[in-house]
Every structure is written in structure tokens, then in C-alpha cells.
Amino acid sequence: MKKLLIIAAVWMLSSCGGLETKSDSKTIDSTVTVKVAGADKDVHGCIGSAGYTWSVVKDCCIRPFEAGTKFINYGSNTDSTLAAYVVISTDKKKAEVFFALTDKPAVLDAVAIMEGDIAPILFENKTEMVDIISRKDMYYIRYKNDPKFTQDINMPDGLSTILKK
Asked: From its phi and psi, is residue 144 left (phi > 0), alpha (psi between -120 and 50) or beta?
């Protein structure tokens, strides 16, 4: 009786996707195919369904919302769900911006700041037309010269904190 219960439990778990499988889908019958959660690895091995994506500046899979610093939507668009995340390389020579305005993250290079500049560009990618500037007490991510996201310069764990480390 115990063996029968164990066999039934194993069968139920495997049919519910509770046991690990190497394929990315499971055919139940000839008309139904179920995708197995977590089996959507990209070319770098990052699992998108778990929120992971490849970071060029970190050279590993990350969750931008954990590894990056959050910038909030700026301007007349009041959609509070729009956000951008910036990840800085260890040597602080590159930044990577994850946001929904482009089809892939934008990698930006650090820019030498000119003394006296009131709105210095900190990082930029001229090809993608994305940059990060500092003006007064805010940081701005600009896309095509238009500010899209912002972050208070005094935000705990914000860009200022990361750049000072």
C-alpha cells in the first residue's frame, strides 16, 4: 500500500511540473502542450521568466530591478509603472540602462566632466541616443535628447551612492 501511495505521489508531482525536466515543453496529448516554467533560457543561460537578463557591464545574468538603481518616469506621462534601471560596471567606466523604450539595454560610456558644466553628461551612447546627465539635484536618463526618467541625487542606494563607492 505504501509503495502504491509513493508511486501515485511521484506520478502526480511529475504530471504537475513539480519535478525538473530538461525539455522546455511537455506534451500531454496530441493537442495540448504545456510550457515548463523556468525552461526559457536565452543564449547566455539567463532565465527570462524568472526576471533574469544578460548584463554586458556585469558579464552575467542579473535581475535589473535588483542589481540596478531605479529611475522613475519623468514628464507628462503619469504611468507610474514605467521605470528604468541603471547598472554600473565595477570600474565605473560603463553604465547599462534597462528600459522599455528600446528593444535591448543601452550600454553607455563614462564621459569626462568639464569643470563648471551645469548639466554634465555622465554616461552616453551616441549611437543609441541615450545619456545620463546630472542637473541641480536630479539625475536624468535622456532618450533622443528628451528626459524620460529621473532620480533624486540624494536617493539612498541611488546613482550618487554607487558612483562614490
From this structure: left
- In DSSP terms, 94 is beta-bridged to 109
- HSE of 52, CA atoms in CB hemisphere, 13 A: 17
Q: Report the alpha-carbon angle 154-159-161, nearest 5.
A: 70
Cα dihedral 141/147/148/151 (nearest 10): 50
For 106-156, what is each residue's pLDDT tens digit?
999 999 988 888 999 999 999 999 999 999 999 999 999 999 999 999 999
pTM (whole model) above 0.90: no
Which of 116, 119, 145, 113 is closest to 131 using CA atoms? 145
Domains parsed from the chain with CATH numbers = 64-164 (2.40.128)
